[in-house]
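Handout for the seminar on molecular recognition.
Each group receives one record of this type.
Step one: identify the two inputs.
Step two: read the structure output and locate the region that could contact adenosine-5'-diphosphate.
Step three: write two sentences on what you found, then compare them with the reference statements printed after the record.
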Amino acid sequence: MIQVDNLEYAYPKAAVPTIKGVNFHVADGEIFGFLGPSGAGKSTLQNILTGMLKGYRGNVYIGNQELRAIQEDFYEEIGVAFEFPNFYSRFTVLENLRFFGGLYNRKTEDPYKLLKMVGLEQHGNTRFSNLSKGMKMRLNFCRALLHDPALLFLDEPTSGLDPVNKELLKEVILKKKEEGKTMIVTTHDMQIAEDLCDRVAFIVNGKIALIDKPRNLKLQYGRRKLSVEYKLASTLHCQEFDLDGIGSNMAFIKLIQEKEIETIHSQETTLGNIFVKVTGKSLA
Ligand code: ADP
Ligand code: MG
């Protein structure tokens, strides 16, 4: 679906490039995540891939077409949710969706159906300027889906969302994956990357430090240990065991048979911890 070779990009007048030799591919139907701290170059990358920023070096193929050769109809095929929602502030929610829907040649989705999907059905007649940040972000997502594109670019889709709406949006994104959509998600939220992405690329200072499946990373960087918290004479104790051979580890078996167990955890690490380990930077 997407193939990027030796991509480099410098903003006009910038002393150093913002994107410095990036290579990756995204398969059909995949959710591919760019995970990195603020300023890493994620939005710049998305803006290049969506044809907004021109004058890059290297090659970007979407389908079989190099981006430099794309025509206007490219925008009939992709959906883009920009980092900062951009709407007509004096139009209502529905007026905005109808306006943007009217820009497409193909048949567009029922705006009300989209609003319902993200829990905004009560706000169709609310002026855009009266929406909260989280509502604007959800509307932004609807706008990207208006023409039912096969390829979606989502820049920080959950920023500004409360935990409930974040979960809701995650579910909707996973539903879109089930429908066969391909998605590029950029985020600095490791939980989003972990819960949504088939593969993630760690990006720091305009370079990709690593690309892998979240699960592989967690297995590779996690400790193959199990920790058991148990109560003994009303004080809490903790003991660690090797995961390897746990089924025949008599000390472990005896412990769980005889003690009052509070918690048992294997010691997978988080993507955030791995990010720090690999890049030396935090995701903040
Ligand atoms: P991220 O989305 O990962 O937070 P950005 O792509 O927004 O990162 O920014 C990457 C770098 O490019 C930052 O150093 C930022 O200051 C710079 N940058 C972003 N937009 C512009 C612009 N329009 N002109 C010049 N520099 C920019
Ligand atoms: Mg950004």
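Reference statements: The longest helix spans residues 163-178. The longest strand covers residues 223-232.
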